[in-house]
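Suppose a colleague, Dr. K., hands you the sequence of a protein chain of 421 amino acids and asks what its three-dimensional shape might be. Before reaching for any lab equipment, you can write down a predicted structure in token form. Begin with the sequence itself:
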Amino acid sequence: MLQTVIILYSLYTFMKIYISIMQIGYINEEKRKVPVLMSADKYLVAGNYAVANGKLGLVTTFVDYLMFIWWVFSGFAWLSGLVQVEAPLMQAVLFLFGFIAVNFVVGLPFELYQKFKIDEDFGFNKMSPKMFVIDTLKSSLIFIVIGGAIFALLAWIISSYESWWVWGFVAMFTVAVLANVLMPTFMGLFNKFTPLEEGELKTEIDALMKQGGLKNDGIFIMDASKRDGRLNAFFGGLGKNKRVVLFDTLVEKLNVDELKAVLGHELGHFTHGDIWKNLGLMGLLLFIAFYLFGHLPAELFTQMGVIPEAGVQIAVLMLLLPLLSFVFTPFMSAVSRHNEYAADEFGSAMGGKENLVSALMKLVTENKSFPKSHPLVIFFYYTHPPVLERLKELGFDASNTIVGEESTLPIDGIFSFIDKK
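The predicted structure, expressed as tokens, is then:
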């Protein structure tokens, strides 16, 4: 059984590496061609940024594979021998904390390189090392408290029910929904949220939300610029009560009409029920994951040198979940891209096509998102259609358009700011 798992994980890793290599080669070739959406120098910079991220991704994928091999051959057995506590729930929680801690330490150098080398070189990172340490300590404390409670709950369910995977799914799906609702609250521990002052922008957003059938739960400006230079925003909460959070970087770059068109796009998701559809797809993936991992044979754990205690079972689920997610990713991405086109149509109807196009064009340069990608990357990973296709659907052919210095920006990240929250 262990051999089968290793083969499947190896194929998954090979596919990720192959897709990354194809993407890097594709962008290296495209960035030297006639630029679109950006001036030639910014087009090249965006391409170089994508390539730098792609190369780092290759390294991290390979390291993740080495960590997987270590965990299944000796890591779990080593950690199980290290964590010896009589209380079953405490044993499970400490084992999982150890599993997370080891992976965190291994991944930390790559996170630091991403933030303080790549993002720093390309003008995104605004965070100081001191701020990074403080954020990490805050995140760790939150994880210890909330993550420990979740781990204990899962361990108790595994220990108490023969069909633990059913109740484990229910518990984790509930946690995922609550996390969606409470995310803005936790972000308040890291950022300052300032209520939007009275004025044209607030009036327009209020009117837009009423038009879309939403109740305004507050409109806030977040001081995102102290950490990162990218543009972003999001709607918080489920149901009709929504909190609007705009990054200060976004408000600085987009005018009122453009912001209205962008927020209209999100209202399109609400009107079409896309938030609930996404939760449904996530729930389906979680259900399948818990079913499969809840029926792993005891032979697998024996071959790894451990007994299937609660902590070990949860750690194995966490280790193998990316493999299952990868299989479902193309389907979920395709559904999401379909929803994005419909939301674009809705947003352009509420805020004007020309304003939505203008917003997309501006977001291109500011976020340094290279406007082209290899078809395999689009097929597997793009939850939003490529920017050129998006603009085309809005009636604007940008294939041969170069944006001047006074304009700004490529796309794919533009709506991720509100859609994934």
